[in-house]
Protein backbone atom coordinates (compact mmCIF):
# COMPACT_ATOMS: atom_id res chain seq x y z
CA UNK A 1 0.00 0.00 0.00
CA UNK A 2 1.48 3.41 -1.03
CA UNK A 3 2.64 5.71 1.73
CA UNK A 4 1.83 9.40 1.59
CA UNK A 5 5.24 10.47 2.81
CA UNK A 6 6.65 12.59 -0.01
CA UNK A 7 9.86 11.85 -1.85
CA UNK A 8 12.55 13.85 -0.11
CA UNK A 9 13.10 17.24 -1.71
CA UNK A 10 16.73 18.13 -2.10
CA UNK A 11 17.87 20.93 0.18
CA UNK A 12 18.11 24.33 -1.51
CA UNK A 13 21.42 24.92 -3.20
CA UNK A 14 23.17 27.69 -1.42
CA UNK A 15 26.55 29.27 -1.74
CA UNK A 16 29.23 27.40 0.28
CA UNK A 17 31.69 30.15 1.20
CA UNK A 18 33.85 30.83 4.27
CA UNK A 19 33.44 33.99 6.23
CA UNK A 20 35.70 35.40 9.02
CA UNK A 21 38.02 38.14 7.72
CA UNK A 22 41.69 37.60 8.68
CA UNK A 23 43.84 40.65 8.06
CA UNK A 24 47.48 39.90 8.85
CA UNK A 25 49.99 42.76 8.75
CA UNK A 26 53.75 42.77 9.36
CA UNK A 27 56.24 45.58 9.71
CA UNK A 28 59.57 45.64 7.88
CA UNK A 29 62.34 43.96 9.88
CA UNK A 30 65.21 46.08 11.15
CA UNK A 31 68.89 45.52 10.39
CA UNK A 32 70.66 43.39 13.01
CA UNK A 33 74.31 43.94 14.01
CA UNK A 34 76.72 41.03 13.76
CA UNK A 35 77.45 39.51 17.18
CA UNK A 36 80.95 39.78 18.62
CA UNK A 37 83.23 36.75 18.24
CA UNK A 38 83.75 34.96 21.56
CA UNK A 39 85.41 31.74 22.59
CA UNK A 40 83.27 28.67 23.39
CA UNK A 41 84.31 28.87 27.06
CA UNK A 42 83.32 32.52 27.32
CA UNK A 43 80.00 31.84 25.59
CA UNK A 44 79.24 28.96 27.99
CA UNK A 45 80.03 31.14 31.02
CA UNK A 46 77.85 33.97 29.75
CA UNK A 47 74.96 31.56 29.12
CA UNK A 48 75.20 30.21 32.67
CA UNK A 49 75.43 33.61 34.36
CA UNK A 50 73.09 35.80 32.34
CA UNK A 51 69.29 35.50 32.17
CA UNK A 52 68.07 34.34 28.79
CA UNK A 53 65.92 36.72 26.78
CA UNK A 54 62.60 35.21 25.80
CA UNK A 55 62.42 33.96 22.24
CA UNK A 56 60.60 36.44 19.99
CA UNK A 57 57.07 35.48 19.03
CA UNK A 58 56.85 34.11 15.53
CA UNK A 59 54.97 36.36 13.13
CA UNK A 60 51.61 34.93 12.10
CA UNK A 61 51.78 33.07 8.82
CA UNK A 62 49.41 34.09 6.08
CA UNK A 63 48.07 30.79 4.66
CA UNK A 64 46.89 32.32 1.40
CA UNK A 65 48.74 32.85 -1.90
CA UNK A 66 49.94 36.42 -2.58
CA UNK A 67 47.34 38.77 -4.04
CA UNK A 68 47.91 39.90 -7.62
CA UNK A 69 46.37 43.24 -8.57
CA UNK A 70 46.01 42.09 -12.17
CA UNK A 71 43.16 39.83 -10.97
CA UNK A 72 41.08 42.84 -9.92
CA UNK A 73 39.70 44.21 -13.17
CA UNK A 74 36.12 45.07 -12.18
CA UNK A 75 35.16 48.32 -10.48
CA UNK A 76 32.36 46.69 -8.50
CA UNK A 77 31.83 45.01 -6.17
CA UNK A 78 34.73 46.20 -4.07
CA UNK A 79 36.82 43.89 -1.92
CA UNK A 80 35.22 45.48 1.15
CA UNK A 81 31.73 44.65 -0.16
CA UNK A 82 32.69 41.03 -0.85
CA UNK A 83 34.23 40.73 2.62
CA UNK A 84 31.11 42.19 4.25
CA UNK A 85 28.90 39.76 2.33
CA UNK A 86 30.99 36.74 3.30
CA UNK A 87 31.10 37.83 6.93
CA UNK A 88 27.29 38.02 6.94
CA UNK A 89 27.02 34.52 5.51
CA UNK A 90 29.70 32.66 7.46
CA UNK A 91 30.92 34.92 10.26
CA UNK A 92 29.26 32.73 12.88
CA UNK A 93 32.26 30.33 12.66
CA UNK A 94 35.42 31.92 14.15
CA UNK A 95 37.65 29.19 12.69
CA UNK A 96 36.85 30.09 9.10
CA UNK A 97 39.09 32.55 7.30
CA UNK A 98 39.30 33.69 3.71
CA UNK A 99 41.10 35.89 1.22
CA UNK A 100 39.50 37.54 -1.82
CA UNK A 101 41.81 36.56 -4.70
CA UNK A 102 40.06 38.02 -7.72
CA UNK A 103 37.22 40.33 -8.76
CA UNK A 104 37.18 40.16 -12.54
CA UNK A 105 35.17 41.26 -15.53
CA UNK A 106 33.82 38.41 -17.67
CA UNK A 107 32.77 38.05 -21.30
CA UNK A 108 29.14 38.43 -20.21
CA UNK A 109 28.34 42.16 -20.01
CA UNK A 110 28.10 43.31 -16.41
CA UNK A 111 28.75 39.86 -14.91
CA UNK A 112 31.66 39.78 -12.44
CA UNK A 113 33.65 36.72 -11.32
CA UNK A 114 34.78 36.58 -7.69
CA UNK A 115 37.41 34.08 -6.52
CA UNK A 116 37.90 33.35 -2.82
CA UNK A 117 40.57 31.24 -1.09
CA UNK A 118 39.27 29.69 2.12
CA UNK A 119 40.90 27.95 5.07
CA UNK A 120 40.07 26.62 8.52
CA UNK A 121 42.23 27.60 11.50
CA UNK A 122 41.91 24.06 12.87
CA UNK A 123 43.28 22.51 9.65
CA UNK A 124 46.48 24.39 8.80
CA UNK A 125 47.88 23.85 5.36
CA UNK A 126 44.53 23.06 3.74
CA UNK A 127 43.14 25.58 1.28
CA UNK A 128 40.08 25.53 -0.94
CA UNK A 129 39.13 27.79 -3.80
CA UNK A 130 35.57 28.91 -4.50
CA UNK A 131 34.17 31.18 -7.15
CA UNK A 132 30.84 32.86 -7.72
CA UNK A 133 29.42 35.41 -10.11
CA UNK A 134 27.75 38.74 -9.38
CA UNK A 135 24.84 39.73 -11.62
CA UNK A 136 24.85 43.09 -13.45
CA UNK A 137 22.46 44.66 -10.93
CA UNK A 138 24.95 43.91 -8.14
CA UNK A 139 22.20 42.39 -6.00
CA UNK A 140 22.61 38.66 -6.60
CA UNK A 141 25.35 36.03 -6.55
CA UNK A 142 25.31 32.79 -8.53
CA UNK A 143 27.15 29.63 -7.46
CA UNK A 144 25.04 26.50 -7.81
CA UNK A 145 22.01 28.70 -7.11
CA UNK A 146 20.99 32.33 -6.82
CA UNK A 147 21.35 34.18 -3.52
CA UNK A 148 21.09 37.80 -2.49
CA UNK A 149 24.37 39.70 -2.52
CA UNK A 150 25.48 42.84 -0.73
CA UNK A 151 26.76 44.19 2.56
CA UNK A 152 23.35 43.38 4.13
CA UNK A 153 22.09 40.52 1.95
CA UNK A 154 19.18 39.47 4.19
CA UNK A 155 17.63 42.85 4.94
CA UNK A 156 15.01 42.97 2.14
CA UNK A 157 13.78 39.42 2.86
CA UNK A 158 13.56 40.20 6.56
CA UNK A 159 11.36 43.24 5.87
CA UNK A 160 9.00 41.23 3.64
CA UNK A 161 8.52 38.52 6.25
CA UNK A 162 8.01 40.97 9.09
CA UNK A 163 5.13 42.41 7.06
CA UNK A 164 3.62 39.29 5.51
CA UNK A 165 4.42 36.21 7.62
CA UNK A 166 1.16 35.98 9.55
CA UNK A 167 0.81 32.24 10.15
CA UNK A 168 0.45 30.55 13.55
CA UNK A 169 3.08 31.90 15.92
CA UNK A 170 4.71 31.09 19.23
CA UNK A 171 7.36 32.75 21.37
CA UNK A 172 7.99 36.46 21.70
CA UNK A 173 5.51 39.10 20.59
CA UNK A 174 8.26 41.22 19.03
CA UNK A 175 9.35 40.54 15.45
CA UNK A 176 12.88 41.80 16.06
CA UNK A 177 14.14 38.20 15.97
CA UNK A 178 11.77 36.52 13.53
CA UNK A 179 12.10 32.85 12.62
CA UNK A 180 9.73 31.85 9.82
CA UNK A 181 9.31 28.12 9.33
CA UNK A 182 8.14 26.90 5.91
CA UNK A 183 6.94 23.35 6.37
CA UNK A 184 5.01 20.49 4.78
CA UNK A 185 2.99 18.48 7.32
CA UNK A 186 3.36 15.29 5.27
CA UNK A 187 7.07 15.67 4.49
CA UNK A 188 9.51 13.49 6.47
CA UNK A 189 12.30 16.09 6.46
CA UNK A 190 9.88 18.70 7.79
CA UNK A 191 9.08 16.33 10.62
CA UNK A 192 12.80 15.98 11.41
CA UNK A 193 13.26 19.74 11.35
CA UNK A 194 10.30 20.29 13.67
CA UNK A 195 12.14 18.73 16.61
CA UNK A 196 14.89 21.33 16.26
CA UNK A 197 12.42 24.18 15.88
CA UNK A 198 10.46 23.06 18.95
CA UNK A 199 13.68 23.22 20.94
CA UNK A 200 14.54 26.64 19.56
CA UNK A 201 11.24 27.91 20.94
CA UNK A 202 12.36 26.79 24.41
CA UNK A 203 16.00 27.80 24.23
CA UNK A 204 15.72 31.19 22.48
CA UNK A 205 12.73 32.83 24.19
CA UNK A 206 13.41 36.16 22.45
CA UNK A 207 12.53 34.60 19.10
CA UNK A 208 9.11 34.78 17.48
CA UNK A 209 8.54 31.61 15.44
CA UNK A 210 5.93 31.68 12.67
CA UNK A 211 4.68 28.61 10.80
CA UNK A 212 3.91 28.95 7.09
CA UNK A 213 2.53 26.09 4.97
CA UNK A 214 4.58 24.95 2.01
CA UNK A 215 3.02 21.66 0.80
CA UNK A 216 4.81 19.85 -1.98
CA UNK A 217 3.74 20.66 -5.52
CA UNK A 218 1.11 18.25 -6.80
CA UNK A 219 0.36 16.57 -3.46
CA UNK A 220 -3.38 16.87 -2.82
CA UNK A 221 -2.92 15.19 0.56
CA UNK A 222 -0.26 17.63 1.77
CA UNK A 223 -2.34 20.56 0.54
CA UNK A 224 -5.42 19.22 2.34
CA UNK A 225 -3.43 18.72 5.56
CA UNK A 226 -2.47 22.39 5.32
CA UNK A 227 -6.11 23.40 4.75
CA UNK A 228 -7.24 21.49 7.84
CA UNK A 229 -4.49 23.22 9.84
CA UNK A 230 -5.70 26.62 8.65
CA UNK A 231 -9.19 25.81 9.88
CA UNK A 232 -8.01 24.47 13.25
CA UNK A 233 -6.22 27.75 13.79
CA UNK A 234 -9.25 29.81 12.73
CA UNK A 235 -11.53 28.04 15.17
CA UNK A 236 -9.20 27.33 18.10
CA UNK A 237 -6.17 29.58 17.81
CA UNK A 238 -2.41 29.27 17.37
CA UNK A 239 -1.74 26.89 20.26
CA UNK A 240 -4.35 24.49 18.90
CA UNK A 241 -2.70 24.61 15.47
CA UNK A 242 0.64 23.53 16.91
CA UNK A 243 -1.06 20.65 18.72
CA UNK A 244 -2.65 19.64 15.40
CA UNK A 245 0.71 19.85 13.60
CA UNK A 246 2.40 17.71 16.26
CA UNK A 247 -0.31 15.06 15.91
CA UNK A 248 0.05 14.96 12.10
CA UNK A 249 3.84 14.74 12.30
CA UNK A 250 3.56 11.91 14.83
CA UNK A 251 1.29 9.85 12.55
CA UNK A 252 2.93 10.89 9.28
CA UNK A 253 4.98 7.78 8.49
CA UNK A 254 2.00 5.40 8.63
CA UNK A 255 -0.46 7.38 6.52
CA UNK A 256 -1.99 5.97 3.35
CA UNK A 257 -4.66 7.32 0.98
CA UNK A 258 -7.19 5.21 2.85
CA UNK A 259 -6.26 6.53 6.30
CA UNK A 260 -5.25 10.15 5.74
CA UNK A 261 -8.70 11.68 6.18
CA UNK A 262 -9.35 9.91 9.46
CA UNK A 263 -5.88 10.81 10.72
CA UNK A 264 -6.36 14.51 9.95
CA UNK A 265 -9.76 14.49 11.66
CA UNK A 266 -8.26 12.80 14.72
CA UNK A 267 -5.47 15.40 14.83
CA UNK A 268 -8.03 18.21 14.64
CA UNK A 269 -10.03 16.62 17.46
CA UNK A 270 -6.85 16.29 19.57
CA UNK A 271 -6.39 20.04 19.13
CA UNK A 272 -9.89 20.64 20.49
CA UNK A 273 -11.59 21.38 17.16
CA UNK A 274 -14.79 19.85 15.78
CA UNK A 275 -13.72 17.61 12.88
CA UNK A 276 -16.96 18.16 10.95
CA UNK A 277 -16.73 21.93 11.26
CA UNK A 278 -13.09 21.80 10.24
CA UNK A 279 -13.89 19.70 7.17
CA UNK A 280 -16.57 22.17 6.11
CA UNK A 281 -14.10 25.03 6.57
CA UNK A 282 -11.39 23.19 4.62
CA UNK A 283 -13.70 22.95 1.60
CA UNK A 284 -14.12 26.73 1.36
CA UNK A 285 -12.35 28.67 -1.42
CA UNK A 286 -11.06 31.13 1.19
CA UNK A 287 -9.18 28.33 2.94
CA UNK A 288 -7.55 27.23 -0.29
CA UNK A 289 -6.57 30.84 -0.92
CA UNK A 290 -4.99 31.02 2.51
CA UNK A 291 -2.69 28.06 1.76
CA UNK A 292 -1.90 29.44 -1.69
CA UNK A 293 -0.93 32.77 -0.12
CA UNK A 294 1.58 31.00 2.11
CA UNK A 295 3.06 29.22 -0.93
CA UNK A 296 3.29 32.54 -2.77
CA UNK A 297 5.04 34.12 0.20
CA UNK A 298 7.66 31.35 0.12
CA UNK A 299 8.34 31.97 -3.56
CA UNK A 300 8.57 35.72 -3.03
CA UNK A 301 11.46 35.24 -0.59
CA UNK A 302 13.23 32.57 -2.68
CA UNK A 303 12.18 29.56 -0.59
CA UNK A 304 11.31 26.76 -2.98
CA UNK A 305 11.13 23.64 -0.80
CA UNK A 306 10.26 22.56 2.73
CA UNK A 307 11.65 22.51 5.29
CA UNK A 308 13.23 25.95 5.45
CA UNK A 309 13.84 28.26 8.37
CA UNK A 310 14.30 31.96 7.62
CA UNK A 311 16.09 33.77 10.45
CA UNK A 312 15.72 37.54 10.09
CA UNK A 313 15.84 37.02 6.34
CA UNK A 314 18.63 34.41 6.32
CA UNK A 315 17.52 31.07 4.79
CA UNK A 316 18.67 27.92 6.56
CA UNK A 317 17.84 24.26 5.97
CA UNK A 318 17.16 23.16 9.58
CA UNK A 319 17.19 19.44 8.75
CA UNK A 320 20.68 19.70 7.23
CA UNK A 321 22.44 21.78 9.92
CA UNK A 322 23.61 20.36 13.28
CA UNK A 323 21.49 21.77 16.06
CA UNK A 324 24.29 23.52 17.95
CA UNK A 325 25.43 25.13 14.69
CA UNK A 326 21.86 26.22 14.03
CA UNK A 327 21.72 27.98 17.40
CA UNK A 328 25.08 29.62 16.76
CA UNK A 329 23.91 30.93 13.38
CA UNK A 330 20.74 32.38 14.94
CA UNK A 331 22.69 34.09 17.72
CA UNK A 332 25.18 35.49 15.19
CA UNK A 333 22.42 36.78 12.92
CA UNK A 334 20.69 38.42 15.86
CA UNK A 335 23.97 40.09 16.86
CA UNK A 336 24.46 41.30 13.27
CA UNK A 337 21.01 42.91 13.49
CA UNK A 338 21.87 44.70 16.73
CA UNK A 339 20.19 42.24 19.10
CA UNK A 340 21.56 40.49 22.16
CA UNK A 341 20.27 36.94 22.47
CA UNK A 342 20.52 34.83 25.60
CA UNK A 343 20.58 31.24 24.36
CA UNK A 344 19.48 28.70 26.97
CA UNK A 345 21.44 25.43 27.35
CA UNK A 346 20.32 22.56 25.15
CA UNK A 347 18.05 20.30 27.16
CA UNK A 348 17.27 17.71 24.50
CA UNK A 349 19.71 15.55 22.58
CA UNK A 350 18.96 15.95 18.89
CA UNK A 351 20.02 13.81 15.95
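Sequence proposed for the structure above (351 residues):
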Amino acid sequence: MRSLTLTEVESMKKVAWIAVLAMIGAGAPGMAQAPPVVSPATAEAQQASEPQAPAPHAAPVDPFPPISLKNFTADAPTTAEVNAFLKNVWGYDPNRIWSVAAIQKTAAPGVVRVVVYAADKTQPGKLSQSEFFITPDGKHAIAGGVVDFGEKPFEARRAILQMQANGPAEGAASKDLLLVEFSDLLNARSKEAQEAIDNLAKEIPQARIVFENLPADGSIYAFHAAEVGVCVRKTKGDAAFFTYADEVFAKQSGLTPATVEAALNAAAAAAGADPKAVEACAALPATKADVEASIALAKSVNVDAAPALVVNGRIISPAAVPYETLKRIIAYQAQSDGLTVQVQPTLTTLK
